[in-house]
Write a structure and sequence with these properties.
Structural class of chain A: mainly alpha
Distance between the termini of chain B: 72 Å
Number of helices of chain B: 8
Strand content of chain A: under 5%
Radius of gyration of chain A: 18 Å
Structural class of chain B: mainly alpha
Order of helices and strands of chain B: HHHHHHHH
Radius of gyration of chain B: 23 Å
Helix content of chain B: over 70%
Largest sheet of chain A: none
Number of strands of chain A: 0
Shape of chain B: extended
Number of strands of chain B: 0
Helix content of chain A: over 70%
Oligomer: heterodimer
Strand content of chain B: under 5%
Distance between the termini of chain A: 57 Å
Largest sheet of chain B: none
Chain lengths: 107, 193
């Protein structure tokens, strides 16, 4: 798409961006109580891992890095279906998607 | 295309670098919006922005196929699934960060945020120590933007993983059907109706 001579950001800058996105997503997973938003944050964390994969695939010149992004997207699709099914089951059990109320397995 | 770009621009004003910075900031800002929005529908709408910004970053890194898959699967299928569940369950207003809680939870929120800022700073300093003169591509762009570069290892070395992923998708679909179907429909006696 773009000619090779056009400059791009260096790889550590992209890795730092991926790290920042991962930290934001992890904060959301730990702090939010709405199960749906927690799920959205998990998707964001996977997405940041994808970004790091694409960056390092270009650094090493390995197609496998980009291939794993493809597989991660497949797994994310399956995981989203299962996770949102769990959210529906949780809502059926408690009448809400508040994760603080899902304490059935607390000892 | 390179004929249209004036020579002698500073590095940060080169079009590709400028767009990478812009879409990176957009991805980061929309990620923060996803975490902080109170309304789940608004959070999922910001998630669309996040995924599209990431797809634009892939496009700028000459990963056209992944950008397309990202838009189709993430911004298309997964977002529709999220919105479908939100509207099915009718969860409109949910407490946001630290809402309807005591001082203890607010302290927890601040402490966890600071911990992640610390983690980010420590790991970002590691990334900076790699040196920013690492070239962002080990192969020429003319090789990277061909689909053959991606597909040849997929169907030669990783064919088993590719086929197994189809089994994973079918298993996920069947599993969701099993544990979201109401049990009483299965256990009802035929004579009761």
């Amino acid at each position: 798409m773009f000619p090779a001579e056009l400059p791009l950001l260096p790889a550590p800058a992209m890795l730092t961006l991926a790290l920042a996105l991962f930290c934001v997503g992890a904060c959301g997973v730990l702090l939010r109580r709405n199960a749906i938003i927690v799920f959205a944050c998990i998707e964001m964390m996977m997405n940041s891992a994808n970004l790091a994969f694409v960056t390092m695939a270009d650094v090493w010149g390995q197609a496998e890095g980009r291939l794993f992004v493809f597989f991660i997207i497949i797994v994310a699709a399956a995981e989203a279906a299962v996770g949102l099914g769990i959210v529906i089951a949780l809502h059926r059990l408690h009448g809400s998607v508040d994760l603080d109320r899902a304490s059935l397995m607390r000892g | 295309m390179s004929d249209f770009i004036p020579q002698g621009l500073p590095y940060l004003l080169q079009p590709t670098v400028l767009f990478q910075v812009l879409f990176g900031l957009l991805a980061l800002g929309s990620a923060l919006a996803v975490v902080t929005r109170r309304n789940p529908v608004a959070a999922v709408a910001w998630l669309v922005v996040h995924f599209v910004a990431t797809a634009a970053l892939y496009l700028l890194m000459n990963a056209q196929f992944l950008a397309m898959v990202q838009v189709l699967v993430y911004a298309g299928a997964i977002i529709v699934l999220f919105l479908f569940v939100i509207m099915l369950l009718q969860v409109d207003q949910q407490p946001s960060l630290g809402a309807e809680s005591g001082a203890g939870r607010k302290v927890l929120v601040i402490a966890a945020s600071l911990a992640f800022v610390g983690l980010f700073i420590s790991m970002a300093s590691c990334a900076c120590r790699m040196g920013f003169d690492i070239p962002s591509s080990g192969v020429p762009a003319s090789t990277r933007d061909t689909i053959q570069w991606l597909v040849r290892p997929l169907f030669e070395e990783h064919l088993v993983a590719f086929e197994l992923s189809s089994i994973l998708l079918v298993a996920a679909m069947a599993g969701v059907l099993v544990f979201t179907t109401r049990r009483q429909a299965v256990t009802a006696e035929p004579g009761d109706a």
